[in-house]
Design brief:
Shape of chain B: globular
Number of helices of chain A: 9
Largest sheet of chain B: 6 strands, mixed
Strand content of chain A: 5-15%
Oligomer: heterodimer
Strand content of chain B: 25-35%
Helix content of chain B: 25-40%
Largest sheet of chain A: 4 strands, antiparallel
Structural class of chain A: alpha+beta
Bound molecules: adenosine-5'-diphosphate, magnesium ion
Chain lengths: ~300, ~230
């Protein structure tokens, strides 16, 4: 159905007027949206950062498989070929004991140089550095590689990894459930607060219908009103979350060098956009739910 | 213009408000609908504007069979029928002008047209000077005139009034009758449910008497016929 522009202007004006006329109720609805957005937004940041944490750790998940000291070149070669052709292996690098020492010395920083004199009598093993296709496959691959007779031992961050996966899965599920629950709650809250204001507008809706207003004509101002409640209700939480997160990010950056949060830019804008959209939709949905039953005249 | 055949209306609570109504009203007529309280007059009116659906029977308005109308078409039916109520049903928070303009905004009339048309009907009901007043600042008679102005601003073929003088003192009631008479003279069909025996017996018109949801009397130039 095509709506003329002046009609649209009229609906917009009415929507604004309704918000002003029902000052406290509008304020209550906006507060409901705002609180919901604060929590949803905080969870969104939490989820984004847990994912980021997992990614950081997952990228570090490598298996170091050390050869027996007496394994000769052809034995090493055949293990390498076998590992390379394994379905769950993403990438294998051969690192002989010389390189191993370099890596070790580098990891020790400036103190590392004292180990240079170990090079002749290098106690390290030749090794394979393996990455699994899926970090969750790491343990299985490590075990299979360890079963090779030319391999002395394997190493990977086994214990933390398992725990971390459990924790992050819980965070994702819990966060998702909480977000959905909150969205429903606020739709309900908004539709109820708007319904309270509509009760006093029930007669007006009846008059509108009796002089020949279509349902969409009656609904449209409520649509605008709901969208505005969502829009205005989103301002404070979005501003608060944006500032809060930026502050937290730089605090973490300065104080905790081994883990950084996800950079605010552009993530914060994406989440803000998403929150704004959710907020407006929640407002519209709530307002439309509340008019529905008064239209039957 | 208005036809009802064997119309019955039973409310959900079991009350049989209309019990086989047969009525025919032609274009340009002025008809009083009389009868004791609870006879079914308001129900009859609500059926014409499809505020209610009949339980049985046929209703034709302006050649449209109401039974064939979908919910989406109801607003368009109502735009061709002006309605006036005993309790005025004005938007109390709006001005006189805005109340009348609303009926035009609904049909998406051009803004310049709205102004002209509102002022024209205000002229007809004699309240041009009160356009900017809030409706709460008006007397009962003035409110009813505004309601009439709103009802006729779309130039409907039919004007239906449910006890339009019920809340007014006799003098004011007569001035409202003058306005309705003038609207009828312009060609609008008028159906008016009323309790006012003095008006019915003085300003002679066709009288349809309803009792227990049925037409019991129908005579042109008839009298009220009940104890006032
Ligand atoms: N909404 C309703 N629900 C149930 N019964 C109703 C309703 N409206 C009217 N009635 C009943 O229907 C009958 C006719 O009422 P009504 O049409 O209002 O009469 P009138 O306008 O002639 O006084 C009465 O008995 C009344 O009690
Ligand atoms: Mg009645």
């Amino acid at each position: 159905m095509a709506i003329k522009r002046k009609t649209l202007t009229r609906h917009g004006r009415e929507g604004f007027k309704n918000i002003r006329r029902n000052g406290w109720m509008s304020f209550a609805s906006m507060s409901a949206v705002a609180i919901m957005l604060f929590v949803v937004g905080a969870f969104a940041f939490l989820i984004v950062n847990t994912n980021h944490l997992i990614d950081t750790i997952e990228n570090d998940v490598e298996i170091r498989a050390f050869f027996e000291h007496d394994a000769d070149a052809s034995e090493q070669e055949s293990v390498l070929e076998e590992v390379e052709s394994h379905d769950s292996v993403e990438n294998v690098v051969y690192r002989d004991r010389d390189e191993g020492l370099d890596v070790f010395m580098e990891s020790m920083g400036s103190d590392g140089e004292v180990f240079e004199n170990l090079r002749e009598e290098n106690p390290l093993n030749d090794a394979l550095i393996i990455q699994a296709t899926d970090p969750q496959m790491t343990a299985a691959v490590a075990e299979e590689v360890n079963a090779q007779s030319a391999i002395e031992s394997v190493e990977y961050g086994e214990s933390i990894l398992g725990q971390l996966f459990t924790v992050t899965n819980y965070v994702r599920i819990l966060g998702g459930a909480l977000v959905i629950g909150l969205i429903f709650t606020s739709v309900f809250l908004i539709s109820n607060t708007i319904k309270l204001t509509i009760l006093s507008r029930k007669d007006e809706i009846q008059i509108m219908k009796l002089v020949g207003a279509t349902n969409s004509f009656v609904r449209f101002p409520f649509f605008i009103e709901g969208a505005l409640i969502g829009l205005i209700g989103a301002i404070i939480p979005i501003a608060g979350l944006t500032v809060g997160y930026s502050y937290l990010y730089s605090f973490m950056y300065d104080q905790v060098p081994f883990f950084t949060f996800v950079e605010p830019n552009p993530m914060i804008w994406q989440i803000s956009g998403l929150l704004l959209l959710v907020s407006i939709l929640v407002g519209i949905f709530g307002s439309q739910m509340s008019v529905r039953k008064f239209l039957k005249v | 213009m208005i036809t009802m055949k064997r119309v019955r209306k039973t409310y959900p609570n079991g009350v049989q408000a209309l019990n086989g109504m047969n009525i025919h009203i032609d274009k340009g007529e002025f008809v009083y609908v009389v009868g004791p309280s609870g006879a079914g007059k308001t129900t009859f009116i609500k059926l014409m504007i499809r505020e209610l659906k009949p339980s049985e029977g046929l209703i034709q308005i302006n050649g449209n069979n109401l039974g064939d109308l979908s919910d989406k078409q109801i607003p368009y039916l109502r735009r061709k029928i002006g309605v006036v109520f005993q309790d005025f049903k004005l938007f109390t928070k709006l001005s006189v002008y805005e109340n009348i303009a609303f009926a035009l905004e609904v049909i998406e009339e051009e803004p310049e047209q709205i102004k002209t048309k509102v002022m024209d009907v205000l002229d007809i009901v004699g309240l041009k000077s009160k356009a900017r007043f809030n409706t709460s600042e008006l007397s009962g008679g003035e409110k009813q005139r505004i309601a009439i102005a709103r009802a006729i601003v779309n130039q409907p073929a039919i004007l239906i009034a449910d006890e339009p003088t019920g809340n007014l003192d006799p003098e004011t009631a007569w001035s409202i009758m003058g306005t309705l008479e003038e609207i009828n003279n312009r060609g609008t069909t008028i159906v008016m449910a009323t309790h006012n025996s003095h008006i019915v017996n003085t300003l002679k018109k066709r009288v349809i008497a309803i009792e227990n949801g049925k037409v019991v009397r129908d005579e042109v130039g008839g009298s009220y016929g009940y104890q006032a």
